[in-house]
Amino acid sequence: MSKRYKITIAYDGTNFAGFQSQPQQRTVQTVLEAAVNKMSTAADFVHVFGSGRTDAGVHALGQVAHFDLENEIPEQGIVNGLNSILPLDIQILAAQVVPTSFHARFTTHAKSYVYRVSRGRFVDPFKRFYTGHYKYPLDVKLIKAALPDVIGEHDFSSFVAAGSQARSHVRTIYQATVTENPTSNEVVFEFCGNGFLYNQVRIMVAALLEIGNGRRPVHDFLRLYEVKDRNECRQTAPASGLYLKKVYYNDDWLKNV
Amino acid sequence: MSKRYKITIAYDGTNFAGFQSQPQQRTVQTVLEAAVNKMSTAADFVHVFGSGRTDAGVHALGQVAHFDLENEIPEQGIVNGLNSILPLDIQILAAQVVPTSFHARFTTHAKSYVYRVSRGRFVDPFKRFYTGHYKYPLDVKLIKAALPDVIGEHDFSSFVAAGSQARSHVRTIYQATVTENPTSNEVVFEFCGNGFLYNQVRIMVAALLEIGNGRRPVHDFLRLYEVKDRNECRQTAPASGLYLKKVYYNDDWLKNV
């Protein structure tokens, strides 16, 4: 009787061609599956299922995936075993035996993302892979005034990149915050929602930065929900600033927000 | 009449084979000289002189170098011009016209280094190039008790790597501190001294971590100064944790310590 394991993963996305397996590419899924299969005694290949894709260069602080093993390994053994096999840009933070009704992708209730923007005329050499960069003036008060428009159930068709296979562009955002950090000279966004469309966070961040710079009206999101046109929102903030922070299952996420 | 420019530089050392030019290698000096020569109208090659070498993988928050230009460029023009030419892992923080009596290497009065150690059983994927790592238990109080022995004029022969060309191994350390950061789970060292031998900071940090772990007596530095034997201090903390923080000229460094 095989057991299902849920793992929580952090990775530096810089040197990955995204999460999902692709031929001839180094992806998170490929690297994870190679490690998991070294710990499996089964003859059949063990697949690893993620909560969703992340693009090339996008990071994770708490991605979630699951896989089934025929041989039983204690939870801490999964963590230590995988970490001793995996390369240094990916790390297992936790492992948990879960019922087979759990599915990393299909039972997701919510996800949260962080987006870090560094400011200043030039990019800090230590942040080039770990933040987006905005060199123009920003009035964070304008962004704060726009954020209530982001929260709630909306049609995000103006904020979805070509290539999305989602049947509906309606999503609910539970929380949207922006924080200024003068020490690190960064502006940090955080979003929590029931799901996000392809490139949605990066397109929303780009639009919010335009609001902060005054080149887009504060309440432009209300118009963008109506027009449902990506041409009204052409910019996409770079992958380097985006972090999948947490994936929520069941209703316990409500306690953490 | 040519002018001498002092520049202050930050770089992420990860993808550099150290500061000093070497054939077929990407070094900080090679990359700087290529950029500086694009801004020079002189027929002759313009050399860039650093305050000293840093090894492959070692970072800089405030390295200093100088060069001479026949054509006059305003200080801010040097900063903006070089930054627009240089790759993203190196950044000019400041430029200043200085008298030709200034020499980035020979008029140095003091230097300070930071060494970041991350703790925990596994390396944080985001820190693998930016910290050293110590997975064993550490009692930072023991390290704090050892640090007064580091300060002052000592013969650091036990703390110098093979390959050092220094005529004397006597150096003076003005300040040595260690800080625990529970949020980032790091232990951060900082040293300021009149000069440092080849790998000295990394060998001292390795010895201090052994003191913190209890595998070396707290006041072992006093013995190590006497025995003058690198075999008594075999470990070298990895390059990834080391940052050249600041290079001091004249006596104005005293004000900043």
Q: Specify the structural class of chain A.
A: alpha+beta
Q: Tally the helices of chain A: what do you get?
A: 6
Largest sheet of chain A: 10 strands, mixed
List low-confidence stretches of chain A.
none
Strand content of chain A: 25-35%
- Chain oligomer state: homodimer
Radius of gyration of chain A: 19 Å
Which CATH architecture of the largest domain in chain A is right? 2-Layer Sandwich
Q: List the chains of the largest interface with their residue counts.
A: A-B, 18 and 18 residues
CATH homologous superfamily (4th level) name of the largest domain in chain A: Pseudouridine synthase I, catalytic domain, C-terminal subdomain
Give the integer mean of the pLDDT values of chain A: 94
Helix content of chain A: 10-25%
CATH level 1 class label of the largest domain in chain A = Alpha Beta
User: How far apart are the first and last residues' alpha carbons of chain A, in Å?
Assistant: 36 Å
Order of helices and strands of chain A: EHEEHEEEHEEEHHEH
Named CATH topology of the largest domain in chain A: Alpha-Beta Plaits
Q: How many DSSP E strands of chain A?
A: 10
* Overall shape of chain A: globular
Short description:
The first copy, chain A, is an alpha+beta fold and 257 residues long. Chain A has two domains: 3-98, Alpha-Beta Plaits, CATH 3.30.70.580; 108-249, Alpha-Beta Plaits (2-Layer Sandwich). Chain A has helices spanning 28-38, 75-85, 140-150, 200-213, 220-227, 253-256, and strands at 3-11, 49-50, 59-69, 90-98, 108-119, 132-134, 152-155, 170-181, 186-193, 242-249.
